[in-house]
Every structure is written in C-alpha cells, then in structure tokens.
User: Fold Inner membrane-spanning protein YciB from Nitrobacter winogradskyi.
Amino acid sequence: MNKSQPHPLFKLATELGPLLVFFAANAKFGLFVATAAFMVAIMAAMIASYAVTRHIPLMALVTGVVVIVFGTLTLVLHDETFIKVKPTIIYALFAAVLGGGLLFGRSFIAIMFDQVFNLTPRGWRLLTLRWALFFAAMAVLNEFVWRTQSTDFWVNFKVFGAVPLTMIFAMMQMPLTRRYHLEPATLEASDAREGDVSQG
Assistant:
C-alpha cells in the first residue's frame, strides 16, 4: 500500500516534539506533570501523523500505547518507576520481536521502521540483527541510568542521550543498506521471473 510521505521536518517534529515537551515540563513542573504532558503530546503527534499521512508507523503506535499505559500507572499510583521503566519495556519488546523473527527466518525491521528501501535477504537479516542487539543494549542502558542516577539526569539522558545514540546508530547502518541494496531493475526482473513461473 502506498503511503503519503510527509515532509522530513514534520516527521522530525512528531518524533522529537513529545520528548522536548517532556523535558521542558519536567524542568519547570516535575516528573508527574511532565508525564501527563508527554502522554498528551504523544497522542497529539499520532493524531497529526494520521491526519497528514492517513497512516501511523507501527513503531510509533506501539510506543504510544506503552507511554499511555505506563504514564497512566505513574500518575494513578504516583510512582516514578513506571515511566522510568517504560523505555526499557519498549526497547526489550522491539529487541524480542526482531530477534524472535530472525529465529523463525523472518525480518520485521521493514515493518517496524516503516522503511522503503530494498535489500537482499542477507541485508535484511544483518540489519535486523544489528537493530535487535542495539535495542537490547539500550534496554540495559536505560535500566542502569534510572536505577543509579537522579530523575533529572535520567530525563536528560532520555532526550539528549538516547535520541542521539539512536540517530548515530541509524546513520552507521547506511553502509550496510548501500552494500545490500537491490536496484529497481533487479526487483522488476525478479518479479517478472516469478510471474512467468506462476503462469507456467
């Protein structure tokens, strides 16, 4: 299914906007107000994304659901632990889905990230494995930070640590995607061969 491709700045705003709201609200009002603001911002970002593209990326949808659930628990029980462990749950979930898919010979990275580039089967496997290991490492890192550092330090890490780390890691995968990239002509030839076989 073809999906509308929003402007890169719009995509960046919907992804980073809620985190910046969380950071600003925590600095001025504390973690509980920040959690409520984060939940509202996440919902607004998903609504805006759907309004513009008629589509919500799977990763954003899963993240939004986990934020709402754990944010609600944080506010209702007045316990910071739930919002702090939320990134661990998300990272661990993504690592499990990607790693579990590989065990069964499936690569879910394209679905999870809503990607449009075309790779060879080996390329998809390698990219999926790398992201699974990255998410597992980020889950461990988040647990270490929130359990050993102050709340303000954790919030700063979440916004100015985890996000840059993810962006840097994503850019480091570009050589792999170029190395195992399938040209459109190759894909068309492959589709043509499959069509001939099915007709025969």
